[in-house]
Amino acid sequence: MILLCIIGKKETYGYEIISELNKSSEVLGFAREGTVYPILYRLTEAGLLQTRLAPSAANGGSKKFYSLTSEGRLCLEEQLCFWRQFADCVDGYISGYRETEEEK
């Protein structure tokens, strides 16, 4: 879901995705190429991402840019809806726990 959110904001490439993930390393831990690229591959194979190759000025090679497909956007919206319901449910249990602790 996090990768789909990052890619959903704008077309982007692997290193940029990893850099974005690493901004949250205190919570998520550090993102590694060996973890992120296989997920990008699976999301592409599942039809949730599309890719585009573009020349890379840095090394003369090419960069693979990722963007969401319409199916990827739909999947992300479904995941966001589920996440909101899940978070609300967990928050309810946390609130109940806090109230019980305050009564002690």
Description:
The longest helix is centred in the last third of the chain and has 34 residues, at 70-103. This protein has 104 residues and is of the alpha+beta class. Helix 2 crosses helix 4. The protein contains 5 helices and 3 strands. It has a 3-stranded antiparallel β-sheet. The mean pLDDT is 94.
Order of helices and strands: HEHHHEEH
Number of strands: 3
Summarize model confidence as the mean pLDDT: 94
Radius of gyration: 18 Å
The description of the largest β-sheet is: 3 strands, antiparallel
Shape: elongated
Structural class: alpha+beta
Termini Cα gap: 39 Å
This entry's quaternary arrangement is: single chain
Spatial order of the strands in the main sheet? 1-3-2
Helical coverage, percent range: 55-70%
Query: How much β-strand is present in the residues?
Result: 15-25%
User: pLDDT under 50 segments (min length 5)?
Assistant: none
Number of helices: 5
Characteristic terms for this protein:
104 residues, 5 helices, elongated, alpha+beta, 3-stranded antiparallel sheet, 3 strands
In summary, what is this structure?
By secondary structure, this protein is an alpha+beta fold. It is built from 5 helices and 3 strands. The model has no long low-confidence stretch (mean pLDDT 94).
